[in-house]
């Protein structure tokens, strides 16, 4: 197996593309994992430490996510190794050059991800005409602005709590990663009666058992400050967030934040994965053995890609959000009921659901001609 690829199986990857333009300082990778259901949708992640192996894992998550959501799209992902806080002109130059390198990869439609946003998608669309999550002025549905992924995470959480015999009203929630996904998930959950007791961002974490004032937190973040500047809460090390007493723990940042070395400290009844691949496989198995339910990433956080797929077809924002709600609620219920009936972890049930749909689609295609 290629050292950059953590797996290669009957699903893919179909293609791996490396982009390297030293004169521009451009180094990027694209993994187009599977195209059986249609052209692949997957975000462009920009960070200094991303790897091709991480890209491949994220691309597989997109394949499963799009199939589980019943979308006519395959899965892909791209990573650009650079600081997302570059000056705007430098960032634009890199992203436009990256887009130009993919001019003839018609099977891949680029979306926003960590380190990129609607403006970045506008640059890509200007270069090659294949991007989603565009600004409204270009006819898009700005996924981060409206919180499409967080909207889906909220509904997955509510359905899962109901299956556990618990209510969202008064449920204590901790959010690791208070960015485009985490802050919107918190906003929607608090609006439905949940109590936000702890949050973390890249600078640290805060904890207030009585509940945090969401409006004050949102204003703090909007000013460019960290959540650690919130005055009426205990400031804690980000690693301590996992041990906060709560009903719901939402990882909404980087991969592998729950792992073998910290999983035993988790004190929640439910983990809803707002980020992609935020829990290692071993940690998920450990949580299942303890009776902690985990709603997998490609079920819980599919709101953004569902919204994007509807944007491609010219749907309104309201119609797209309604589709996110309906599909994620139905899929979360199906996966959790299947996991309970079969006595298996929810991820195993979710992957079985997605693979069944993928294999059915693959039977209708001649491999390599999509």
Structure description:
The protein is an alpha/beta fold and 370 residues long. It has two domains: 126 residues, Leucine Dehydrogenase, chain A, domain 1 (Rossmann fold); 192 residues, NAD(P)-binding Rossmann-like Domain (Rossmann fold, 3-Layer(aba) Sandwich), CATH 3.40.50. It has twelve helices and twelve strands. The strands form two sheets. A seven-stranded mixed β-sheet has the order 9-8-7-6-10-11-12. Helix 2 packs across helix 3, helix 5 packs across helix 6 and helix 5 crosses helix 10. The two termini are 25 Å apart. The model has no long low-confidence stretch (mean pLDDT 94).
Briefly note the structural class of the backbone.
alpha/beta
* DSSP helical segment count: 12
Cα distance, first to last residue? Answer: 25 Å
Number of E strands: 12
- Average pLDDT figure: 94
Shape: globular
CATH superfamily of the largest domain: NAD(P)-binding Rossmann-like Domain
List the uncertain runs.
none
Write the H/E string, N to C.
EEEHEHEHHHEHEEHEEEHEHHHH
Number of discrete domains: 2
Main attributes?
single chain; 370 residues; alpha/beta; Rossmann fold; 2 domains; 7-stranded mixed β-sheet; 5-stranded mixed β-sheet; 12 helices; 12 strands; 18% strand; globular
Question: How would you summarize the topology of this molecule?
Answer:
Blueprint: E1 15-21, E2 26-34, E3 40-47, H1 52-68, E4 75-81, H2 88-101, E5 108-112, H3 118-128, H4 143-146, H5 148-163, E6 172-176, H6 182-191, E7 195-201, E8 204-207, H7 214-222, E9 234-236, E10 248-251, E11 270-272, H8 281-290, E12 293-295, H9 297-300, H10 303-312, H11 317-342, H12 346-362
Parallel strand pairs: 3-4, 3-5, 6-7, 6-10, 10-11, 11-12
Antiparallel strand pairs: 1-2, 2-4, 7-8, 8-9
